[in-house]
Amino acid sequence: MKLRSWLGLLVLAGALAGCATAPPYDPFLIPEAQFRAKVKRIALAPLAVPPQLGVAEPAKLRFDALIEAKLREAGFVTLPAKDWGETFARIQKEAGGIFDPNTGRLDDAKINAILARTATEVGQRFPLDGILFPRVHVVNANWSSASASWDGVSEMLASGAGLLGTPNASGTIPALSLVVSINAAAPENPSYYRHQGGIQVLQKLRPISERFSSGIFGPVPREQLLANDERNRGAIDVALGALLKKP
C-alpha cells in the first residue's frame, strides 16, 4: 500500500463540498457498525503541520491534547501522540531518514517500512486497533463580503470598524483545515475513516486605511496560527464529528 493510503493524504474533493442532490459525505471507509466493533483503541500520531507556516511546537502539542480529549470523551482508549512520535522518530533515525539519498525525494518504501515498524513496536506495549494521523492542510476558503466558509466552519474576516467598507465581492482565500485519517495498524489493511474540518483563515481584511496601498487582504500573524482553542475545537468537532456522536 502506498504512503498516501497510510497517511490518508487525499483531497476530499467534491464529496465534502456536495450539492443539493448529492448524498451527505460519509467519512467511514468501512461500514460504521464494523468500525465501531473493530476500533476501540487508537494510537495518535503527532499533528503534522506544513513547516512553512512556522507554527510553534507548543501550539501543536496543545492541538494533540485537544484531539485526545475528544476521543476519550467518546469512549476510545488512546495512546498519546508523544509516544507514537518518539518511537517513529527513533526508528526513522535508525533507518537513515525518509529521503532517497540518490534523488533527495521522499522514499515511499522507506516511509511505509518505518510506519510498519513503528506500529509493530507501539502495538507490543499498547494493543491498538487503529492509528489516527492528523494533518493541517492549506486549502481554499470561499469568501463573500466579510465572511469566509469552508469545510464545515465559517469565520469573519474583520471586526468592529474593519467591517466598514466591506468589499461587495467574493472569491477564495487560503485557509487551514484539519484532515484526520484513521488507518489500520497494518499497512496492508484498509483505511477506516477520513474527514476534515476548517480551522482558520490565513488572510483577513486589512484596515480601510491600508487597503488602497497594500491590498484588501493581509496575512494572519504566525503567532496566531493554531492559537485559538475555540476554533481548534471546532475543527476537531467537524473532523471527528461522526466518531463523537453516539451510534
What's a quick, concise take on this entry?
The chain has 247 residues and is an alpha+beta fold.
Which short descriptors sum up this protein?
247 residues, alpha+beta, 36% helix, disordered N terminus
- What Rg, in angstroms, do the CA atoms define? 20 Å
Task: Give helix and strand order, one letter per element, not per position.
Answer: HHHEHEHHEEEEEEHEHH
- Biggest sheet features: 7 strands, mixed
Report the sheet-strand fraction.
15-25%
Shape: globular
Helix fraction bin = 25-40%
Number of helices: 9
The first-to-last residue Cα distance is 30 Å
Topology:
Layout: H1 3-7, H2 13-17, H3 32-38, E1 41-44, H4 57-73, E2 77-79, H5 81-94, H6 108-125, E3 130-144, E4 147-150, E5 153-156, E6 170-183, E7 191-201, E8 203-205, H7 208-214, E9 217-219, H8 229-239, H9 241-244
Parallel strand pairs: 1-2, 1-3
Antiparallel strand pairs: 3-4, 3-6, 4-5, 6-7, 8-9
Helix pairs in contact: 4-8, 5-6
Structure report:
- The longest helix is centred in the middle third of the chain and has 18 residues, at 108-125.
- This protein has helices at residues 3-7, 13-17, 32-38, 57-73, 81-94, 108-125, 208-214, 229-239, 241-244, and strands spanning 41-44, 77-79, 130-144, 147-150, 153-156, 170-183, 191-201, 203-205, 217-219.
- The protein is built from nine helices and nine strands.
- Strands 1, 2, 3, 4, 5, 6 and 7 form a seven-stranded mixed sheet that branches. It has a two-stranded antiparallel sheet with strand order 8-9.
- Helix 4 (57-73) packs across helix 8 (229-239).
- The protein has 247 residues and is an alpha+beta fold.
- 32% of the residues are buried.
- The two termini are 30 Å apart.
- Strand 1 (41-44), helix 4 (57-73) and strand 2 (77-79) form a beta-alpha-beta unit.
- It is globular, with a radius of gyration of 20 Å.
